[in-house]
Amino acid sequence: MPPGTSLALSAARLTPQAGYIFAAVFAILLIASLIGQWLRRKHGAANATIANLNARIYAWWLMTFVLLAAFWFGKIGAVILFFLISFAALREFMTLIYRRRSDYYSMAACFYILLPGQYYLVWSEWYGLFALLIPMYAFLLLPIIASMNGQTAHFLERAAKTQWMAMVCIFCLSHVPALLFLEIDGFNKENNILLLIFLIGVVQASDVLQYIWGKLIGGAKIMPSLSPSKTVSGTVGGIASATVLAVLMAPITPFNPWQAGAMGLIICLMGFFGGLVMSAIKRDYGVKDWGNMIQGHGGMLDRVDSVCFAAPVFFHIVRYYWT
Q1: Domain boundaries in the chain?
Q2: What angle separates helix 74-97 from helix 48-72, to the nearest 10 degrees?
Q3: Where do transmembrane segments lie in this chain (predicted)?
């Protein structure tokens, strides 16, 4: 039997450190909301920049409440939340790339076999199969399913799209709740939720701070063909600031300050490159956003694209060096 298959639920609660972090985030959002409303009254509701800022702040309130509600229920809350995030991301990806009726069964396999299967493995803490289900078994299964209809037109392209969709939207994102089953030396397993907060907080802070530094300083675009809004100053300033934040968050992690800073830099860089890769896919299909699920933030994939690339790297570094 795979380890961790007991379904006993602990009482819903947050660790004290997580509670303090959420309290600080809510305080920052309250200040941001007051500033946004003051700017709105000063410059008028028609100002597009101010309207966009307030929409983003509203979206962050909503997303923070959702994270708080999920993390309050510990493992089951985190697994359900990221299952739903993967489902939404999968749907957005499929909507963009789905072009042929012949691909239906490959898409169905992603939704009805791979998605629930991967998250069951997270819940049951079955690391061996968790690490192999999609990069090995699904990699072989999806082209087999695609070949069964006899359609050979653009076959390699179609098979690669479904493989890529499963890897990014299911496999990569499932590494976030999988942090909860790590047995870290000298670190209480009940505190693993703090690793999720560290990962999500640092990566998302990097995205926000890149936007803020870019608006404040401006300057040359870092890669205008992929992401017209990203500047060199914004990217460097945002990643550097988020790395400092990672150092400040070291006390809630099993890392010392230098290790936390190194981990922060790695996941910020992976998040940045993840954003560029996902932007390249959008530009290839001629769209600006993956969807419009979150007001001010586009679709679900627009919000988690950086996490998709940062999460598996973070998970396996922690597992290799700290367990």
Answers
A1: 75-322
A2: 130
A3: 20-39, 59-90, 102-121, 127-150, 162-181, 193-213, 234-252, 258-281
